[in-house]
């Protein structure tokens, strides 16, 4: 008997005229950014009743909370990482894995895992070359 694989994050459950959560916007699998720019993870879902979007850490599934100056939870389902000083880097915030969770009375779905990497920008090297002319000896 052939077994079918199904991703729970893509199932739309319908119960008595209600619809379980479905992602409208799912976060990427990887987010890399500089501490000088900051970044954000966006996630949104729809369903009936309207699902509530939260964030959890992966794989331990702990609820994500705000960390002043380093991580903010916005009301629209966005997890915001503002620019920060290099000395304020915290691995549990900036070198972590996250998942978006959408929950309603009909059900709960989890997004793919997002691997987040933040840190100092890489130094940029600029090389200047003088014009050289190379002739072939014959």
TrEMBL record:
Alphabetized PROSITE patterns for the sequence: IG_LIKE (PS50835)
Domain Ig-like: 21-115
Domain of life: Eukaryota
Family annotation (SUPFAM superfamilies): Immunoglobulin
InterPro entries given in the database record: Ig-like_dom, Ig-like_dom_sf, Ig-like_fold
Protein's name in the database: Cell adhesion molecule Dscam2 isoform X1
Organism per entry: Vespula maculifrons
């Amino acid at each position: 008997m052939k077994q079918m694989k199904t991703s729970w994050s893509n199932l739309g459950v319908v119960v008595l005229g209600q619809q379980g959560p479905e992602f409208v916007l799912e976060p990427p699998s990887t987010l890399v950014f500089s501490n000088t720019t900051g970044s954000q993870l966006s996630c949104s879902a729809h369903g009936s009743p309207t699902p509530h979007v939260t964030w959890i850490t992966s794989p331990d599934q702990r609820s994500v909370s705000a960390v002043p100056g380093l991580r903010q939870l916005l009301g629209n389902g966005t997890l915001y990482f503002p620019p920060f000083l290099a000395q304020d880097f915290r691995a549990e915030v900036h070198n972590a894995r996250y998942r978006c969770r959408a929950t309603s009375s009909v059900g709960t779905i989890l997004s793919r895992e997002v691997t987040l990497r933040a840190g100092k920008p890489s130094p940029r090297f600029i090389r200047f070359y003088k014009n050289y002319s190379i002739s072939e000896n014959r």
